[in-house]
């Protein structure tokens, strides 16, 4: 029976992937955590809470929350969302048609460019906000003592599902707004890659585009250390359902780590994005692992096994032909499985070992040690709210009565049969303790894109 899913919160049923390659369940639209200031925590769709890192993926099912004196920011195609202190949100839906974010507590700033999605919805515990035009919005979830508040610096929004024009406030910028509001990202809009790739705006300032007779359009990073190679400066994290995921230390490292391939051209590393696609497929890391599943690479002596991986080249299409074998990075297995920084722990294996090592097909088969580098934080100790429940209602039942919406730009009240996309929200948030007041530090902009 066809149903309407009343989703206020996010429960995502994605299958576990223990590989550094994408599978069919991986979403095509994905963003990146772009700034972290203070105590910020991150939760992958089916994982636990952990201390957040810049360049962690943002997709449906992801949660982000900030401590009282912390701030964070993430980017998705055409949008930027900033969390004030003591805020907690979930990504409910993220695709080319719909962006839905549930703000369980606290306050967010949202900047929208054109072409984000057909519908951009912000769910609050007492209603919903639909952002109807590009602009800058300041949205506070409210609590037991404070009503939700929606302000638009520019743009147009609708409110409903329990919210009225009484929840609309005049924009009154403060330190938090000053930190996240800025001009839209100035990127390489002519670059031969999909504009939906998260972090692509950073490439122009950190490298050069060129053309190769064989590879086509390529991008060369600049200012790299002498021993730099793709997937060497950063760390691994085990993020369900994607599995082992590469978190690059470079500000620009998100897109070249999760899309396309890497090639040595005229003694320089070049990122080859491949043919332009409006729905590029995300991969946890574009690498191949060497050795034996569940073990990795053996080493002489009593130092235990190592884990080795190499950046995939465009022509790597078999188990024997991998062009970048001798550019593999190798670290002790404890460093890899513990999510420690890679560059400080590199091992030197003979080239013949790298040349002859088998490529591990499918899953790597190595479990994380402890928190797998995620800095796991027990949810019961830190979570300010419990996730709302999911309710399913058959379409055959009578529709609820019309909802009154308020238009921020004009304060004109209009009636619609249902807020887009004709879904009805049931707010069932259970507060564990009252949220702290927001205290925001003004240097979020300085941290934007930092490591």
Oligomeric state of the chains present here: single chain
The CATH architecture designation of the largest domain is Sandwich
Text of the CATH class of the largest domain: Mainly Beta
Q: What is the CA-CA span between the terminal residues?
A: 47 Å
Tell me the overall shape: globular
State the share of residues found in helices, binned by percent.
under 10%
The biggest beta sheet reads: 10 strands, mixed
In total, the number of domains comes to: 2
Number of helices: 7
Task: Kindly summarize this structure in a few lines.
This protein is mainly β. 8% of the residues lie in helices and 33% in strands.
Describe the structure.
The longest helix is centred in the middle third of the chain and has 6 residues. The strands form eight sheets. This protein has a ten-stranded mixed β-sheet, with no helix packed on it. With 451 residues, the chain is mostly beta strands. It folds into two domains: 238 residues, Jelly Rolls (Sandwich); 157 residues, no CATH class. The N terminus is likely disordered.
What order do the helices and strands come in, and which of them pair?
Layout: E1 3-7, E2 31-37, E3 40-43, E4 49-51, E5 57-58, E6 63-66, E7 71-76, E8 79-83, E9 88-94, E10 98-105, E11 107-112, E12 119-124, E13 127-131, E14 135-140, E15 149-154, E16 157-160, H1 175-180, H2 203-206, E17 207-212, E18 216-221, E19 234-239, E20 243-248, H3 254-258, E21 261-265, E22 268-272, E23 287-290, E24 306-311, E25 329-332, H4 333-337, H5 351-356, H6 379-382, E26 385-386, E27 390-394, E28 403-407, E29 413-416, E30 430-431, H7 444-447
Parallel strand pairs: 10-12
Antiparallel strand pairs: 1-27, 2-5, 2-7, 3-4, 3-6, 6-9, 7-8, 8-11, 9-10, 11-14, 12-13, 13-16, 14-15, 16-28, 17-18, 19-20, 21-22, 23-24, 24-25, 26-30, 28-29
